[in-house]
């Protein structure tokens, strides 16, 4: 753990691994909830860092952090959300080829593990979720798309992410969800916050809407022959 000053009252904690960063973030939240942590305006996790912004008593906390024992995360730490996904992404076949399995097996493996929000960024409501074994990490696309639909479930590197709104992106698209990820009327506005556990639940695509009935004889597009005379 390396503690780097940021201005006069903030610290950047630099860790050796994403797992250490997630464990320290969980411990900070636990101590804040227990009332044993110095007042901190913001706790902002990153991949291997945590920014502690506007600390009351920054020198005291710097000393205390060096003495902390941070327990490893347990499987059941953090709230659990289930997110329904239709696994119909345009890159599902490519991901299956990269993994050396069938598309159905990609679905089984991705939905068969528990994911965890490590940190957020890129766009409001976008969460970087870990959980896949290193053997299933995939590269970003060589040519990013200019627009990715909102709700797209995607993979890149070690992470799963869901695009909260249409935006450019180079992640591998494997599915879609209609769960709202960002809502300014909700507190917090982001559905997926650091430390949240996530399970993806496969579901079938919605049935296609039934075709409109053909107009009855003597009618055209909802306009009666009587009205046509007038």
TrEMBL record:
Residue span(s) of domain Carboxyltransferase: 1-192
Gene3D superfamilies: 3.30.1360.40, Cyclophilin-like
GO molecular function: ATP binding; hydrolase activity
Residue segments, region Disordered: 202-230
Alphabetical keyword list: ATP-binding, Hydrolase, Nucleotide-binding
Pro residues biased stretches: 204-214
Protein known as: Allophanate hydrolase subunit 1
Organismal lineage: Bacteria, Bacillati, Actinomycetota, Actinomycetes, Kitasatosporales
């Amino acid at each position: 753990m390396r503690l780097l000053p940021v201005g006069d009252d903030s610290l950047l904690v630099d860790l050796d691994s994403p797992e250490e960063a997630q464990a320290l973030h969980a411990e900070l939240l636990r101590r804040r909830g227990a009332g044993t942590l110095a007042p901190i305006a913001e706790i902002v996790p990153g991949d291997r860092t945590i920014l502690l912004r506007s600390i009351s008593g920054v020198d005291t906390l710097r000393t205390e952090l060096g003495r902390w024992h941070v327990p490893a995360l347990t499987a059941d730490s953090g709230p659990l959300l289930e997110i329904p996904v239709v696994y119909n992404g345009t890159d599902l076949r490519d991901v299956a080829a990269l993994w050396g399995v069938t598309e159905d097996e990609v679905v089984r493996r991705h939905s068969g593990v528990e994911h965890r929000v490590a940190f957020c960024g890129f766009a409001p409501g976008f969460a970087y979720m870990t959980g896949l074994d290193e053997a299933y990490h995939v590269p970003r696309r060589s040519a990013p798309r200019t627009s990715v639909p909102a709700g797209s479930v995607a993979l890149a590197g070690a992470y799963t992410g869901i695009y909260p709104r249409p935006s450019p992106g180079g992640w591998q698209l494997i599915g879609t969800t209609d769960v709202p990820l960002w809502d300014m009327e909700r507190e917090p506005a982001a559905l997926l916050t650091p430390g949240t556990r996530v399970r993806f639940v496969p579901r079938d695509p919605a049935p296609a809407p039934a075709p409109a009935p053909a107009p009855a004889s003597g009618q055209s597009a909802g306009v009666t022959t009587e009205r046509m005379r007038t």
